[in-house]
Structures are given as structure tokens and as C-alpha cells.
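User: Fold this; C-alpha cells only.

Assistant: Input:
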Amino acid sequence: MPFLNKIQRWAEQRPHHTAVVVAGRRLDWAELRDAAAELVAETKSVTTLCEANSVDFAVRFAAAVAGTRQCAVLDPSWPAALQEDIVRRVEACAVPAQVDPDDALADGPPDTGFLIGLTSGTTSVPKAFTRSRHSWQQSFDASIEFFGLRQDDVTLAPGPLAASLNLYALAECLYAGSEFQTLESFDVGDVHAAITHDRVTRLVLVPTMLRMLSERGMTGCVDASGIRTIICAGSKLDARTLEAARRWAPNATIYEYYGASELSFVSGLGLAAGQPGTPGGTGIGRPFPGVEVSIRDDAGTGVPEGSYGNICVRSGMVSNGYLWGDDGEALRSFGSWFTVGDQGYLADGELHILGRRADMILTAGRNVYPHEVELALAAVPGVAAAVAAGMPDDLRGQRVVAGVVPSQGGITATQLRAGLEEILARDKRPLQYYVLPELPTTDRGKVSRSMLLEWINARDPRVRSLGG
């Protein structure tokens, strides 16, 4: 079961307790159940749901996965032509199931597909994969245990419900019988108001959001002492964000985890209140409950501990594969082991993330992953953010260069070199530093290493050389 049978249970046991809140509009468990049940009969076997955050979204999503129905959630901010293309692809590729107009609001067989997930990717058309009901139940059980979700928690996930992080948080809370909140759109002031007035105890968000909320929350004296859990995903927390979150929400356990849409949860760690992190570290904790992790080469052979290779996963949470977009590399399998191509290594049972193989810099015969360099730079005092890339070099093949955004005032190459002394091996350190007013990003908001190189080569005024 994903969560519909659970909604029925909570509606019977606690009908008037709050289930979902979006921008101040509330539905209790009985209202959510009844509203979703009314829509089931008119809901097709395959639904494409494309709308902004609202309680109606939660109701329609519940109805769209009743019985053997399947649902694809589209981002309403995508261009109309892209949305239309995806709708056509879903209708052409998804195998419709036989549905009964008299279906109740109940979960279908565990092995049936219910969710058509869409990866954001870097191409114009996202890849589409499917997940079974059973895989999400296993994911719920694992995440509830790992993150310690309780029924008396109030979870706020302030991002778009079309994003997998927030959609999962909604479904996880419905499964656990715990109140879920979100906003019509992300706004720092609205999040602070919800924390102050709505008894929020748990935040689910990306690091950039956490940093803004923490820094502005301290400036505005917003009390976050009632937050006991912060869950971050999307990228590893940098030292400055972690420090700011620690000061703003002093009683929170801060979790970060590694996972992928196609793999679900892989590994994670939780830093209890007062527990220090590892500045510049690449470690992302130990495997989730029910997950096995192995590092394997391109032939599928395990490598010695401490050696890097493909991060491979074996669990019941892995997706069923792609409806479209499978190039044979995006999700590979070695028998029962699956990988999306992320590179890493295991040390004392902890998984360390290095990044995608395509991002690797080969310099003087050594492999350097920019993700590792960026995390180390972000731990240097005076650095707000950093991006690293490999620039062609006649002697080395490539040389590591880095752009940094100072946290305040200026910064020198000497300060950067000194800051990396204890946290990054010498052969991985940048040979050239540049000061940036902001990180280079794509139209979708992702940091672009290739754009950094373009700025440097074009002598863009946003780039100022600090020397080596």
C-alpha cells in the first residue's frame, strides 16, 4: 500500500485532526478522505496532474492513485509545449489498467505501478520512470524509522509539490498520520510565520532554502527552538549553512541523505543538536534501513574498501525502470545491484559521494571530483559558496580552477589556500581562483561548471582573477 488505506484509518480514528494545510487552508482527515473518495469514480486510469500547491492537489493526487490508477505529476512552471509533450508521452507509454467506476478510496495490489516519476535532468525532456506501491511502502517504513517521524510532528515542506522531495513528504505524512503543511510558493516570511504560529516541528527542504531561513531568521529574531527535525536533500550541506542552521534551530537534529529518484533512499546521517559536522567532508552516512550499498567498477565487480567506483544499491525501494529516456546508462544494473552512475567510496561503513563521472577532472594523471573541491572551499571562513571545474592545460591535461562567492568583504588566494590546508589533498586544490558575485546557474537554477569556464574564457566582468 502507498497511503490510501492509512488515510481511511486516520479518518476513522482521528476524523477532526488536521491532515493537510496549504497556505492557511486546512483539511482534517475525514474531509481529505471524503473529498478524495468523491473524485475516484471520475478519475481515469492514468492521470497527469499539473497544478500549483493547494489542498486540492493533495485531494486529486490521492484519487489519482486509488485502486490500480497511475499518476504523473508535472511541474506547472514548465513551458506549455513541454507539458503538452509529456502528457502525450504519458498517454502513449503508460499501460492503462482496468478501473472500476465503483472503486473505493483504497490501495491497489502492492506490485502494481502507481507513480510515473519525472526526473528534472539537464535535457529538455525529463526521463520518466515508474514506482510500485510496494516500493513506496518500503520507502515510508525506512524513512519514518530513520528520521523518527511521529504522529505529533507538524511537517512543513515549503517547496513545490511537483518536486519529488515535497511530494514524498506529503505522502509520507499521510502514511504516518502526521500533519503536513506547505505554501502556495516559497517565501521566507511565510515560512517564518508558519514556524511561529503553526507549531511546526519538522522542516523538509533543500540547502539553499535552509540557509535563507536560518540567516534571515537570526536577523529577524524568528524563534525556531521548537523545530526538532530538519531534513535536507538535493546537495550536501556546506559548512556555513550547517552553522547557520545550528544557531537558528538549536534543538534540531539535522539530517542529510543521498538518494536518487530511481533508487529512493540510499544513505544518510543525522547530526543531533550540538553535534559537530565534518568541515568539507564528503561523507553522507550509512545505508538506510533495508538498503545495501556496494562500490563496483564498470564491469560490476566490487572494489576494495576506500577505492572509488559506481555507487550501487540493492533494496526493495528501487524503481521499476523507465517509460522513456532510457539510454542504457541512466539506470544500470549488475544483477541485483543498481546504479545511476554516481561515483563514491565506502570507508568504515560510511558512504562518501564524489559526484557524476562526467564531471570528473583528470589532472596530471589524477582524478579530481569538483564536488569534493566545492565542499572543501565552502568550509573555508569567508566563503559563501563555491564552484570548481577543469580547464584545459597543455601540461596537466586539465587544471582545477574555482570560483568563490565571498560571504562578506573580500577574500584572497592566500586565505583560500590556507583554508584548504587541512581539509583537501594538495593535488586536488585549485591552481587558479576567481571571485564571483554569484554562482553561475542554468535556467533551471542548477549550478553550471561549464558556464564558469565560459565566463573565464570570455573575460566576463562577473569574474575577477585572484591568481593561484
